Every structure is written in structure tokens, then in C-alpha cells.
Amino acid sequence: MTFLHGKKKACQIWRKISTIDLLRHLCPVLLAQFLTSSGKSGTAKAFKTSSVVSPWPKDHIGNQETKGKYNFVSSKSLLEDRIPKLYKFISDHVNKIIDNEKIDLDSCAFSTDIWTSCNNLVFQSLILHFITKRFQLKRLLVKLDPFPDAHNFKNIAKKLNYFIKGLNLEKKTYTWVTADEVLNIMKPMRISEVMNDYLRCADRQLHLIVTQALASVREWLKLSLKLNKLVGQLIYSSKATSTLRKIAIEHKQTRTKLIQKVPTRWNSDLKQLKSNIVLKEGLAIMAETSTKIEVWMPTVEEANIIKSIIEYLDPIDKNSLVLSFGKDWVFAKSTWYTENLSS
Questions:
Q1: What pLDDT score was predicted for residue 265?
Q2: 2, 19, 192, 265: which sits with the fewest CB atoms below 10 Å from its CB?
Q3: How do strand 176-179 and strand 197-200 relate by DSSP bridges?
Q4: The pTM is what?
């Protein structure tokens, strides 16, 4: 099985495990029984042993590095009419798990995947994420249907809406979508009535601010090396020494490596945000260094570069407040960020 994102030709893997691996993990005995009862005893035996279905594109399997490590499931066992049958076969077991764990379907999360089998048949799945009575995070494959339509978000949203309505959830269900204002995603989600509201992706905004700032600084490495010298000269200012030492340790690297440390599109936290604020404050100290240590004063060119960095990093402070977008709880969270950055 190969998970593809977007067009099949892209072969961009967006999950580390295959669907069959997921099914085997959820219901290994039932899967083996299903394959055995379907006349696929050899395949069932393979699933009981250490056989692994590769999540990588077919072309990669022939490589010497992976040769012999992966086995393909016969395409005959993955026909369009067999996968839904497999879903129906385990659906009773899934429902029992839901009943036994007393899962509140109005307090859980869903994710949907579009994937293509090795014989180029496309399916859409709905996975339920929930917390058990023992406070364990679990996942269940609860819906699975062929997806013959074009791979666009309008069709994905339509099928997702069909899946969720099929679970008979109460009207109080509130579905949030996190997006960065991509209209081709938001519009079909509204039309399909899957989405009640959405949160804008502020991580992407932070990422662009910082990467754009660093991309404009060619002399960054020279400045970071000079930070070590400044730490030794500011011995009479514990705050300045501490700040500059942190910068020297955390940011003494090339621009490319530094970009890897800043918030990415989908992964940002207080630590990363605080790191950038400390960087900005440290550079401000460097730009306004006392004339008593004139030897280590930045040149006019370097001072201008420093000021341009600060100018680019300033919006990060303001961005933490803009996160609210009218949502009180997000505003409270961003206010907490601002108040605790110095702690």
C-alpha cells in the first residue's frame, strides 16, 4: 500500500504505515480470519508472521537497501469490492470497542485520508481518535469507501460529510478546521456543512516572518561569531551576559541551520517563540553597546543589519496578540504567551 498526497505521480508519502498495517494493528485476528475465509490462506499466514507491507512507492522496493525486507500483498486481494467487505467484516468488532470503552462520539476527533492501493484503486477513510477509560489515546478505522472522483477538496469534503453524517452524531457536534486561509479548502468545507468554524494558522505567519528576516541577512554568521566576544566584554551586566550567552549557544550556526529552528508551518510552541524574542532582545543590546567597549562595537553596516533583523522580528510580538481573531480563549492564550515570555 502506498499513501499518496495529491496526484498519484507525486508519490509523496504522508503516513509512515500502510493501511493494511493499520488494519492488522487494529484487528489482527479478524484480518487473518477474513483472508483465510476468502481463500487467501497464504496471505493470512504472512500477516501472522513478520511480513511487512511497504508504505513506499513500488520503484523503491527493488533497491538493494530494501530488497527482501518488504512483501507486496497480491493486488487480487485489494480489489475495489474486497476492501469495503473487509471494513464490513470488522465493523462489528469496532462497534464493540466503542461500546466497551464508552466512547463519547461528541468528544472525539476524526481524520480523513485519501490513499491509493498498489493496483491504483483510490479510497477515502475516516479514522476515529479517542481517549479510553484508562486515558490511552487510540485510533479506529470506522469508515472506508472507494473514491473514484477527482482528488480535489470539494469531493473530499463531500465524502467526509457523508461519513460523519453516517455516524449519527448529535447536532451539537462542533467541527473545527485549522487552515491558513486557503479558499479552495475553506469554501467546499462550508458548502458541505462539515465545518462549523475554523482557526487560522498563525504558525505559518510566524514562519514566514522569521524566514524572510533571516533570508535577507547575508552577514548573519559573522554577527553570531561576534556574540561570543561580546559576552566576554559585558561582564558588568549579568542580564546582558546571560542574554548574549544564550544567543551565542543557541544561534551560533549558519542561516540555513537557524531557519530549521524557527517555527515551521504546523509546529510552533512557547519555546520556539521565546527563543526568537530572546534573539531580538539580544540583538538590540548588541546594537546599543556601550561606548566603553568601543573595540567590539558593530560597524555601521552591521548595526544596520541588526536593526533590520529587529524590524523583521518585531511583528512576532504583535502576532501573538493577533492570534485571537475574535476568539476569547485564543486571545487569553496569546496574552499568556506575551506575559510569560520573560519568565
A1: 36
A2: 265
A3: parallel
A4: 0.34
